[in-house]
Amino acid sequence: PHGSNSERHIIFLEDLSENSMREVCLGAAECAAEHPSWVFNPWSFKGASASVPTPTDMQTVAGILTTERAIRCLRRSCGRVKAPVVYVLNEEPHADFDAVGIDEMAAGEMAAEHLWDRGYRQFAFIGSSETAWSNGRWKGFERWLAAHGTKSEKHLFSIATLPVYWSGNLARRNQRLQELVSRLPKPCGVMAANDAIACFVLHAARHQRCRVPEEMGVVGVDNDPLPNAAAGLAISSVELPFREVGRQAARILGECWQGRATTCS
């Protein structure tokens, strides 16, 4: 059952503390608001079984927007998921289920072009050694530079050493980044894999008395307002279409309800 005969209940199941996922959720909510019979429910998932819907909750759910990580936990709690599922921000492409992701390589190419246009001819990439989105952005950054006859240094850190989201480990993070900033060729155009890392890099540059943008230009990804505020200056950033990801995922869910075959559940 799905509530009244006319209602379609949707849950958006993921951690909504991250700016990117909040934006995807907002896009899905905007699409749902265009359909009077759709009931949209953001369900913040914190990575524990206790935070996922129960089998009783799932009785009213007609569709799920989520990630592979969250759906695995939901299946452990509820068994087979019968409602249509559409994945958002999947890190790897899949042919066997419906998913809407981001062209991460395009983000890297845009960052390289931005730094090139501002006159930098020495480059570095600072990112995560553990995430597919960071690797995709690095590949795009390197591909654009290779097409223009140059390359960049690549510096990857574990999440424990350089958090890609807001977390602790301040002493280790700052020490390693300060050492790295002091070693980079100057002037240098730096792509940070996301805005949180860009903020940390800018703090390290300030500590090393490295002048920005004269000696080092930094561009991030996501256009996240929190790192911009924390950095104390505007971070140049590649804005990604997170809201459109959410809108498109919700549209696909609507197509599933209209009878299009789906293999995503």
Q: Main attributes?
A:
alpha/beta; five-stranded parallel β-sheet; 265 residues; 19% strand; single chain
Describe what you observe in this structure:
- It is a single chain.
- The chain has 265 residues and is an alpha/beta fold.
- 42% of the residues lie in helices and 19% in strands.
- The chain contains 9 helices and 10 strands.
- It has helices at 19-33, 55-58, 68-78, 104-117, 132-147, 170-183, 195-207, 225-231, 242-257, and strands at 8-14, 38-44, 63-66, 85-88, 99-100, 123-128, 152-157, 188-192, 216-221, 236-238.
- The strands form 2 sheets. A 5-stranded parallel beta sheet has the order 2-1-3-4-5, with helices on both faces. A 5-stranded parallel beta sheet has the order 7-6-8-9-10, with helices on both faces.
- α6 crosses α7 (195-207) and α7 runs parallel beside α8.
- The longest helix is centred in the middle third of the chain and has 16 residues, at 132-147.
- It is elongated and about 60 Å long.
- The two termini are 17 Å apart.
